[in-house]
Amino acid sequence: MTSIPDGFGRVESKIDGITVYAPIARADQIASPQNFKCPNCGATTAFDPRAASVTCANCGSVYALHAQRVGREAAEFEFTVDTLNSALRGWGVTRRDLNCENCGATTSVGPTELSTTCPFCGSNRVAARAAVPDAFRPRFLIPFQIERAQCQTLARAWLQRGWLYPRDLMNMARSAEFTGIYLSFWTFGARVRAAWRAQVGYERQENYFDVNKAKFKTRTVIDWRWENGNITVPFDNQLATATSHIPARLLERLKPYNLDALVTYEPGYLAGWRAQSYEIALNDAWDRARAEMREQTRQAAYAEIDSPHVRDFSMNASFDDEVWRLILLPVYLTTYRFQNKTYQLVINGQTGKVAGDKPVAWTKVWLIVAALLLPGFVLAGLGLVLAVVGGAPLFLIGGLIFVGGAIIAVYLLQKAMQAGEA
User: Fold this and answer.
1) Would you call 217 exposed, middle or buried from its count of C-beta atoms within 10 A (0-12, 13-18, 19+)?
2) Phi and psi for 27 in degrees, rounded to 5?
3) How many CA atoms, within 13 angstroms, populate the side-chain half-sphere of residue 12?
4) Which residues pair with 70 in a beta bridge?
5) Residues in Cβ contact with 118 at an 8 Å cutoff, skipping those fewer than 6 apart
6) Which residues pair with 409 in a beta bridge?
7) What is the per-residue pLDDT across 353-397, written as a single tens digit (0 to 9) for each?
8) The whole model's pTM is what?
9) 158: how many CB neighbours lie within 10 A of its CB?
């Protein structure tokens, strides 16, 4: 009879004749949640970025959090069954989940919060339910350092930056309601060892005789030869988003976070703030991170080749010392509507850096494009009409002005298309 490993139990198998065992969730993984009520007056408390403590708005009492600052040396975990099986679950504090029926996002809120607006899309179609208790608990976080009151000033300065946008866009910041939310991120580390092989070309000059011109000339030729090498690239604190409801390009623009400010997770940091558990599972996030590490290793291998001419490049990579963490990072999030379209705006809750989408004032852009092209077009047309009486020089001048204006106009249109992702 086959013995069952410790910590495993039999689960349902979808294949007849095959017995499947899986880790059994330990009872102490889902700890009894805490309620953050003020011991002095019983009111609801909240974490205050100014005091870096939990405070009571009713009586002013301040309660220190006993988290330890660990920074980049925060513990990392191996990809083992024991590690995954022993990981703590849930938030460690009583919370509710708000599920948006419009975009599908799930947000964790305090048990007394009455707000029913989705911070990701602005919809009011949300349904409350008990928080799912079996998701991995984050082990570390960076507390909010930017106060909510600063968000409108930061957003207004960002919205008025640039001239490709509508003039009244900055007014959107006055009515914007910012939601402070802790977003889940994975961090990964690994040591990548790679062996590469490629044909590398080296330039040399050679003389040859040009029969048509009956003289010797010099030309560049490339000599190809096979080369190979080995490279080791260490990766540490590779940050990977765990949410699918904010575009990765926006979260990328919020970087860098100062991971030296990481502290051990305490449920008190969530008091009065929203949070979102990971939507991208550990294995999926690790697959993406591995692909990024592999690409960066390939670029590092290319950098070791002493020639710009490379072809038939191949590389075998192996990953060692693979580790991961689940952390929370502070973000302020709002949505605003402009001309019946919804835009997202996010602020780094540690540094105040702003990123988001902005509408482009296309009427203004097309008027500028027309102003760039019209003078050359008019001059060239006039020169063509007057060609019979010596207007050719005017036609050439107009053509050159038109081409120059067209080049600038194409550049402007490219900038305008990118401007909505500022």
Assistant:
1) exposed
2) -65, -30
3) 1
4) none
5) 98, 100, 102, 103, 105, 107, 124, 125, 126
6) none
7) 999 888 877 777 778 888 877 877 777 777 776 666 555 676 677
8) 0.77
9) 20
321 confidence band (pLDDT: 50, 70, 90): very high
Q: Which helix (H) or strand (E) holds 309?
A: strand 309-338
User: 């050159």: which residue's tokens?
Assistant: 400
Among the residue ranges 24-28, 155-159, 169-173, the one predicted with the least confidence is 24-28
pLDDT in tens, 187-240: 999 999 999 999 999 999 988 888 888 888 888 999 999 999 999 999 999 999
The one-letter amino acid code at 35 reads: N
Is the backbone peptide bond immediately before 256 cis, with ω within 30 degrees of 0? yes
Compute the C-alpha angle 9/11/14, nearest 5°.
150
Tell me how crowded residue 107 is: count the other CB atoms within 10 A of its CB.
Answer: 25
98's CB contacts (< 8 A; 6+ apart) are 106, 107, 108, 109, 116, 118, 126, 127, 128
Residue 29 sits at φ, ψ, to 5 deg, of: -75, -30
Terminal-residue alpha carbon distance, the chain: 64
Q: What is the 3-state secondary structure (H, E, C) of 343-369?
A: EEEEEECCCCCEEECCCCCHHHHHHHH
Tell me the DSSP string of 203-249: EEEEEEEETTTTEEEEEEEEEEEEEEEEEEEEEEEEEEE--SSS-HH
Across the range 22-34, mean pLDDT stands at: 44
Strands 106-109 and 179-210: unpaired
341 and 166 in contact (C-beta within 8 Å)?
Answer: no
- Strands 309-338 and 140-141, sheet pairing: parallel
Cα separation, 78 vs 25, whole angstroms? 18
Cα 18 to its chain centre, rounded Å, is: 42
DSSP state for residue 20 in the 8-state scheme = E
Distance CA 285, CA 27 (A): 27
For 100, the 3-state DSSP assignment is strand
**Phi, psi (deg, nearest 5) at residue 415:** -65, -40
Q: Do the beta carbons of residue 137 and residue 325 sit within 8 Å? A: no
